[in-house]
Amino acid sequence: MAKYLTVISDxxxxxxxxxxxxxxxxxxxxxxxxxxxxxxxxxxxxxxxxIVKVAGNCDFLSRERKRAIFECGGxxxxxxxxxxxxxxxxxxxxxxxxxSFGAKVVLYGHTHIPxxxxxxxxxxxxxxxxxxRGSFETFAFITVEDKIVTAKIxxxxxxx
Length: 160
Description:
With 160 residues, the protein is mainly beta.
């Protein structure tokens, strides 16, 4: 049976944008928040039991962990904000971390730039920023079926 994940990052106070994701969150088995706006998740409180969250560099008073390792659909995921791994210049440190944790998928934020890539059998997914202005407000939706991961970046403008 397929599993679904909604992946969000960098809300930076744009709580109303999070509430526009409720339809996606309703069908998701997991909602992953990649930091910089952990307190904004109050908008998704009804899904608290499904949320995996990590703190970002702007979550100053948060007590959330900086990384999460979890399994969904038989696939191991590593979730981080990305600032501690230098993601603005390279994914090499993230790749090393993924290998050390046995992760096949790495979810990261921090850059505000949506991107899906693969290297050495590891899939890297950055959902972009849910708070960016205009057409750059994005999130990711992931399907895991038979241990095959399919990800897509979705503009928030597609959600009313």
